[in-house]
Amino acid sequence: MADPEATPVQGHPPAERWQDLLHGAVDLYVHAEPDLVPRHGDDVDLGRQLVSWGFAAGVHRNHHSPTAERSALVRRLTGAPLVGAILANQAAGGLDPVPVDLALRHGARWVGLPTLSARHFRSTMAARGALTPVLGFGSAELELLDSSGAIRPQVLDILELAGAAAVPLNLGYASATECVAVARRAAEQGLTLVVTNPLSVMALSTGEAAELLDATGAFLEVTAYSLHPSNASHRLAPQLFRLMRSIGVQRCVLSSDGGIATAPASDILLAMACDVLSGAGFTEAELRTLIQGNPRRVLAI
């Protein structure tokens, strides 16, 4: 078996054999223009790519605007299996449940709590000297708990809406304390929970991430972009792989976070990640679970 502590990426092209595995992939994290971050192409380009790659579904996530209406047009124009989402950042309505309700009524299949507008995320990025105008767009610094440590009523409303619509809830980029409190309540309501890049973007320790995942039964979403050599977080791969092994592959998903103009397209990112994970000892059957089986469970398709 390959050494799981080995250097995760060497910049080599992904093996062609992964293309068969990617046919039927469910990518929970794709991007397109218009966006504040330069992307490979627009919504229609993304739809055509999903069709050409043979993906079974893609979740269009934009940090600043809901995407259900955009995705519906893409489906009509291209036949692509693209579905919409809403992330509760300031520009999309923040913690106001009304935009979330509207997005779900328009067909969104993914609800996310604040990411770039989360106070924890912004303070972490500021401490790193990495709070760019895009990452810091808007003035709000949203928290899921009030000053007494109770979950804010608006957050509880969002949980109810996600539960009623039977869509997954992503915990965003809040602190470990916030995430655990909200996730425990959400788990009591039977929601499917997802935690994205806890070691890198959320800046949680391995222990905090493991506690969060263990306490709530959430899925760990690993993004292929976080393993790409252009992303500094790829250095955290050994810790990430240990975390995946500790909670089990059955509770992990692999998404691309694709569309970023300075990185490869989603299919190449996922193929590269398969190469990396295979080199760390993950079997082809496990990779199929990460790319196809578990994302289907998350979206209930």
Give the topology.
Layout: H1 18-22, E1 26-30, H2 43-53, E2 57-60, H3 68-78, E3 82-83, E4 86-87, H4 97-105, E5 111-112, H5 119-128, H6 153-165, E6 169-170, H7 176-188, E7 193-196, H8 206-216, E8 219-223, H9 237-247, E9 252-255, H10 266-279, H11 284-299
Parallel strand pairs: 1-2, 2-3, 4-5, 5-6, 6-7, 7-8, 8-9
Characterise the protein shown here.
The model is unreliable at 1-12 (pLDDT under 50). By secondary structure, the chain is an alpha/beta fold. The chain is 41% helix and 10% strand. It has helices at 18-22, 43-53, 68-78, 97-105, 119-128, 153-165, 176-188, 206-216, 237-247, 266-279, 284-299; strands spanning 26-30, 57-60, 82-83, 86-87, 111-112, 169-170, 193-196, 219-223, 252-255. The strands form two sheets. A six-stranded parallel β-sheet has the order 4-5-6-7-8-9. It has eleven helices and nine strands. It has a single domain (18-299), classed as Alpha-Beta Barrel (TIM Barrel), CATH 3.20.20.140.
Index terms:
single chain; 301 residues; alpha/beta; TIM Barrel; 6-stranded parallel beta sheet; 3-stranded parallel beta sheet; 9 strands; disordered N terminus
